[in-house]
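re: that chain from earlier
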Amino acid sequence: MTKVRKAVIPAAGLGTRFLPATKAIAKEMLPIVDKPSIQFIVEEAIASGIEDILVVTGKAKRPIEDHFDSNFELEHNLEKSGKKELLALVEETTGIRLHFIRQKRPKGLGDAVLQAKAFVGNEPFVVMLGDDIMVDEVPLTQQLVEDYDKTKASTLAVMPIPHEDTSKYGVIDPISEISKGLYDVQSFVEKPQPEDAPSDLAIIGRYLLTPEIFGILENQKPGLGGEIQLTDAIDTLNKTQRVFAHEFTGKRYDVGNKMGMLEANIEYGLKHPEIKDELRAYLKDLASKL
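^ sequence. v structure.
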């Protein structure tokens, strides 16, 4: 049985929804309290048994590489000062098998995934979008891996969304629920208008794909927005081998938009050992004045 051991994290987007902050810093490095959002994605991958991670970057994304690299001067200073807890936090990000490749031009998610062809080889792999932070007792990526162990087929994570929001997502046309939360799918549609949407089950940022997707992406014509759409390639793959949809029932933070980022900061802050009590008191006081 082929083990799922590789993950691809596309991180080449321009981050225009967070301008002007992202003019000089990678969107994926924006913090949730004290941790860059991309670190949550990497931690989910590792917790799910992933061994090697490829980050697909673009221009101005060098801080991502620096974050996961060793910083000898900082580490030496913390050790010399006896700041062992801070040293441990810094060293958490340096022992991970991370690889980086640049997407030369922003031609869409499908093109970003195609950059991973040589890295992946002939293995199943996971695609993890940095805009989605998923919280559940069992990591969502691990849930997809467990599905693959049973089906040996590509599986995408989906969850219900308000019907009026279908034009923001890829949406599935389910045939039947073959087991609890696992759907056989007729087709995958990229950002349909509400009146054309086949369901309210939207694709969210986790995909487990078989390597046959690369041959399709190499010949995929540009779709919506003139970009190479991963959803279109998955729909083509589904015509030759089954692709399933796994319904996620945990908590999703869409940190690709301002409101989602604020929600993640507040809720993560309420669990943070250093600030949770102070933040809770502040929020209660603020709520009384609203």
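Residues 276-289 form the longest helix (14 residues).
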